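Format notes (please read before filing issues)

Several people have asked whether sequences and structure tokens are stored in separate files. They are not. Every record keeps both together, in the order shown below: the sequence lines, then the token lines. Line labels are part of the format and must not be stripped during preprocessing.
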Amino acid sequence: MLAMLRFGAARRAACRPLTFPHRRLESTARGQISEDSHTMRRRLLYQMRKRGILETDLLLSSFAARHLADLPRADLDDLDALLANVDWDIFHWASGKTAPPPEIAHMPVFQKLRDHAARRGASIVRMPDLPTE
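Then the structure lines:
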């Protein structure tokens, strides 16, 4: 019985959420926690490379390699909202196969993505290399 209690305590301790001291988090006016821009860019880069559908991965990862470092914070927030959508929807909206919802169509970052998708067919596309730090 004592061994079971010790195991349960060890298991609960192992399941505690981890804290990441290297992340600088800022509190917003609504009480939500937001990331600093550097951390957000890194997370978005990962999310744009690892979507799960090759076509969307290639489109978004090549867009990230070309534009992510230069996007202002408002565009990063819009891009984060855009990435919350289904992969095939993002791909079809960006390639012009279907019309995006109005809230997506009016995002400046979506216009850049659509322009990028229109130029993408001009060359052979492969997943860009990750930047080294």
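For reference, the curators noted about this record: Residues 15-32 have pLDDT under 50 and may be disordered. The CA atoms of residues 43 and 76 lie 11 Å apart.
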